[in-house]
UniProtKB/TrEMBL annotation:
Subcellular location: Mitochondrion inner membrane; Mitochondrion intermembrane space
Keyword Ubl conjugation appears in the UniProt entry: no
Transmembrane residue ranges: none
Catalytic activity: N-(hexanoyl)sphing-4-enine + ATP = N-hexanoylsphing-4-enine 1-phosphate + ADP + H(+); 1,2-di-(9Z-octadecenoyl)-sn-glycerol + ATP = 1,2-di-(9Z-octadecenoyl)-sn-glycero-3-phosphate + ADP + H(+); a 2-acylglycerol + ATP = a 2-acyl-sn-glycerol 3-phosphate + ADP + H(+); a 1-acyl-sn-glycerol + ATP = a 1-acyl-sn-glycero-3-phosphate + ADP + H(+)
Pathway involvement of the protein, from the record: Lipid metabolism; glycerolipid metabolism; Glycerolipid metabolism
CC per GO annotation: mitochondrial intermembrane space; TIM22 mitochondrial import inner membrane insertion complex
Record-annotated DAGKc domain positions: 61-202
Family note: Belongs to the AGK family.
Gene giving rise to this polypeptide: AGK
Protein name, entry field: Acylglycerol kinase, mitochondrial
PANTHER family noted in UniProt: ACYLGLYCEROL KINASE, MITOCHONDRIAL, SPHINGOSINE KINASE
Top-level taxon of the source organism: Eukaryota
EC id: 2.7.1.107, 2.7.1.138, 2.7.1.94
InterPro entries: AGK_C, ATP-NAD_kinase_N, Diacylglycerol_kinase_cat_dom, Lipid_Phosphate_FormReg, NAD/diacylglycerol_kinase_sf
Amino acid sequence: MAGAGKVFATLRSHWKKTTFGVCLLSWGGNWLYGKHCDNLLRRAACLEAQVFGNELIPSNMPLKKATVFLNPAACKGKARNLFEKNAAPILHLSGLDVNIVTTDYEGQAKKLMELMENTDLIIIAGGDGTVQEVITGLLRRADEAAFSKIPIGFIPLGKTCTLSHTLYPESVNQVQHITNATLAILKGETVPLDVLQIKGEKEQPVFALSGLRWGSYRDAGVKASKYWYLGPLKTKAAHFFSTFKEWPQKHQAALMYLGPTERPPDEPEEKPSRPPLYVRLYRRLCLYWSPPRKEIPQEVAPEDWQELKLSTVELSIATQNRQLDLTRTEDFMNICIEADTVSKGQFVNRGSQKMRDPHMCPEDSQCIQASRCILQLPEGTEGSFGIDNEEYEAMPVEVKLLPRKLRFFCDPRMREQMLRAAVQ
């Protein structure tokens, strides 16, 4: 008892050191417990992947080849370690023939994709920038019609991973989020995603899955990292200080656009079997004795372009991939023209909201549904576009919707949730 009393007396007399020690032990225990939980998640995911690897395949069927484009610079240089610890073991246990292509500099994935040989799966491991580079390289290929049918997997490793909200359930645990995304590739469920083709007057087209932003909110949001020392107030500070430079902030442009297009029926996944020989001979004889009449070409109706002069604080052109509707009957992109009459307080508040949801369209905005548009900027316009969170020089562009152009692997629970929401 006397010894215990001495211990308590010592602790009480050195209460600052005691408090620090308790906090340190608590933090260390919590850190070790978190590491243990992460290892359990990895183990469970590997056991699930092994089930796919143990499946028997015919001896004459080659292994499926998966080409992984890994951006090690994503997530502030942590992407390689995240991939090797959480995703790579799952892919190797699944029975896939995995070929990992590591990019060394910005733009390399685009070039490598244009040179890639045949593969069964394409897997993108990185953030929004890596996704945009890969799909741009894919859709610039001369044989893009065939390559765009290859299913694509996305492993979210970057700072911004917009597609994660569509393809995978929300998760606060990064390890669980990465393992769920990798397992979704093995499960094979896919959803079709729209693509925007954005083409300048001289440049090659750039392709986007989220959309294009041009305006004051985007410009201020890019500068938020400069105010890192303000912690959680850095976003509000960036928008607040941007109001000192110029007010009101207006962007003038001319917009021409075409309305939505009807969605064509889905193409059958399996090609019909070849008819028997006697059926083919009969058809050829019928064509020989009664050749088809030449059809008179019908006049094509002129496209109904709408024209609009606009003055806005920000313009955004977005796909519907964020709120995916698998049963919709029309294909279109959403053009949001925000009013240029916002107050400084509204500007600061909305700027913070747009950091969470970049393509949010406020109630007082003009919303247009279009399948194609041409954005004309006044001569001498400065500034930049944000295309899938990547910066490009602002210039006159034509934006064309490519509906359901690419198929991405998704978590089966998310696909079921989309179908259930469409029925309701």
